């Protein structure tokens, strides 16, 4: 069993799964849509453990963070440093896109193909400045602030969840150690259990890699991917430069080479590259940063859960390159001052898109293009295809930039690198035997049955109540005579 787990988690096995996914698409081109359901099921299971893990990690991380020397300056350095990293990464992306003339060297016939993608039957949408009189009224409820933490938790909005968790965590950190000892003793096993759960769910990454390869092959075979080459070239070049800068910053802190740092972070990098959700790599990132590279666990466990939601370096680079690409496509060559404006707008758009994931985040790109008075509607189908390829490198970039920030704010703190055991001092692990009697098994079965019956009856009651509130009118329009006894 241990050999199988080691084989499944090896990067070469994941690349073999990618090759098999491409081969499956070549045999059956329509396999990409059924496999998307598999990826969705995996992400749902992953979020089931990732969201509570992030909440508990914030609770524990904030309390430990305030025990560090110069905690407030380190927090401010994390906040402002993250914004500066996003801005400079977006500026580099916009500059490389401008140097490579992204979007400006596309032949006219390819531009017509690019525009014809928005005129397909799947992407036609009616746009009007006046409301439709025949449309049914839609009730909209808007709230300026979150007033229910459990509603935000059920909705799955990661930024809202983390903001609520931060408020609770500050109150928890303000309690004396004697009062908070009991609650902290409950949080610790919950955190370790959820961390182990996500680590076990990562064993299914080959299946996700198989589905991802089929989706990428389907997108790459289309005309849109070939037309977006001038966009992908500066984007991937920016990601590569930023990754090497982040690795060099961490290498200076730990006293190793950049390639040794990347080797230590190999597991979370591979997970971020193949898993659509950035939360999948958090347990491996914490383990590698603390045990392999020697970063303080207090800082890492505080920063790692917040980085996927608020340190969106990959999104800022994507929006900046996209803005220059669209500007060159419409014949408007950005001047250096406009590149700075694009970088600032891309940073703001990345913060705006904290609650939007996947292809929906492309709509936020209109915020950047609004400063240049350029539209994006006609190019959305092409960017939807490119977004599938850019999602994995975007997660990797944001994660490594979080590590670079940790290297900057960790100056002056002692290392926590775990010493590697010698062969002569290795203590064999003892097996733990769990005994479950028949009586306890029967009680557990009855409790599970009662829970399922409660959920079933609650669903029946909710459906009956909804059916009574929505009475179906008689389609004939004839009123039935009342029956006489």
From TrEMBL:
It is a multi-pass membrane protein. GO terms for molecular function: L-cystine transmembrane transporter activity; symporter activity. The chain crosses the membrane at residues 12-28, 40-63, 75-97, 149-174, 232-252, 264-286, 306-327, 339-356, 362-384, 396-413, 441-462. The keyword Transmembrane applies. GO terms for cellular component: plasma membrane. Pfam families: SDF. SUPFAM superfamilies: Proton glutamate symport protein (SSF118215). It is found in: Membrane. InterPro entries: Na-dicarboxylate_symporter, Na:dicarbo_symporter_sf. Keywords: Membrane, Transmembrane, Transmembrane helix, Transport. The keyword Transmembrane applies. Belongs to the dicarboxylate/amino acid:cation symporter (DAACS) (TC 2.A.23) family. This is Cation:dicarboxylase symporter family transporter. It comes from Ramlibacter albus.
